Amino acid sequence: MSKSGRPREFKDTTVIDAAMEVFWSQGYEACSTDDLCKETGLGRGSLYNAFGSKHELYEQALIRYHQVGIEAQLDILHNDAPVKERLRELLEWEIWKNSAAKDRGCLIINASAERGKSDPAVEKIFKQHLALLEQAIEDAIREGQSAGEISRERETSELAAMFLSCYYGLRVIYPGTMNRALARRIIDGTLAAML
Amino acid sequence: MSKSGRPREFKDTTVIDAAMEVFWSQGYEACSTDDLCKETGLGRGSLYNAFGSKHELYEQALIRYHQVGIEAQLDILHNDAPVKERLRELLEWEIWKNSAAKDRGCLIINASAERGKSDPAVEKIFKQHLALLEQAIEDAIREGQSAGEISRERETSELAAMFLSCYYGLRVIYPGTMNRALARRIIDGTLAAML
DNA sequence: ATAATTTTGTACTGTTTGTTACAAAATCGA
DNA sequence: TCGATTTTGTAACAAACAGTACAAAATTAT
Lengths: 195, 195
What we know:
- The structure is a homodimer.
- Chain A has one domain (about 10-190): Orthogonal Bundle (Tetracycline Repressor, domain 2).
- Chain A is about 70% helix and about 0% strand.
- Chain A has nine helices and no strands.
- In chain A, helix 1 crosses helix 2 (about 35-40), helix 5 packs parallel to helix 8 (about 155-175) and helix 5 packs antiparallel against helix 9.
- Chain A starts with 11 loop residues before the first helix and ends with a helix.
- At the A-B interface, helix 6, helix 7, helix 8 and helix 9 of A face helix 6, helix 7, helix 8 and helix 9 of B.
- Chains A, B: InterPro entries: DNA-bd_HTH_TetR-type_CS, Homeodomain-like_sf, HTH_TetR, Tet_transcr_reg_TetR-rel_C_sf, TetR_C.
- Chains A, B: Keywords: DNA-binding, Transcription, Transcription regulation.
């Protein structure tokens, strides 16, 4: 393993996190490589040497956002609280808790809306994120049905799909309006719909 | 009223429709004024003389999309079919019927995701569109409750909020994945949730 | 006809874009 | 200490950007 050469003056993950913030706040097209240099603290030389291009850095930022986010959401869904409380916590997570997210929405959803049709990397991450979430929600709901917390008369996969869609809708509607009362109604209405 | 001068060689609405297509397919930042000239058929002179700036044309396109879209959706909700069928039709509208929309999603949602935090015009239209839709959905659900089609035990506004969120979620998830089976589950699950 | 007015097409403006070139700086193995 | 190797900062790049200037063209009113 080669070891020579001048050592890097930064940690990759900190730079990716900083870049993530920029893409999250401005979107892909609206942010310039200058913005990225300023916010990451790197010069153009370092940035291009380490990441290759604006788009590759974008991909890394999306992947990191996906990984961190999925872990947090699965943690909530794998709680030991009653299933319905876990589901409520999930709905409330990005809205009240995660102050980084609440007014800018979900980076992956934003990315899909801005570039989903033309950027295969975005499409892939969006699908992956969604599929993992759907599976975990379905598992939780099945558990809730077994425990008698959630209606047994409706199909698990249908309940999961409905909940997932409400969740994604909320993550578009709340950042778009910042209407807390509406968000409250959505959350309560969604949970009530599980019986 | 003044009437002199060389007459315009285009109809405003046709140009706005063409511009709408461009913004819809590419997003605001990703499309150039050159793209707009090409797709509308106007030269730069005409375009800037008639619309002032890229952003003003964008606003007009959003407003037009909003008006046309709201009308179509309210038409569905004011049907004479049973309420549940109207709601199903609404959910299915952009997904199966409206071939212009199905793979690129809703322009207003996309605009909100791309520019909602930094563009007051986008924010305003998003809120307006959503509020009109929410009201119409709530009215329809109340009607359904009176007719005994929809559960009377749940609050109308909560049911409406839940439905609205499912609807918006679907309009993000389907274009992002093009997964028909999942869309089917979301639609069926959402309608089943109204009892 | 001609003056007034508006639209149209084209050439042009100064910036900003993403990316590259490259020399100086900092490390390692010899 | 001396190459070898990698990172860093700066300068530069052509292309693309949104917007403007302006003269030619097309109309109406007189």
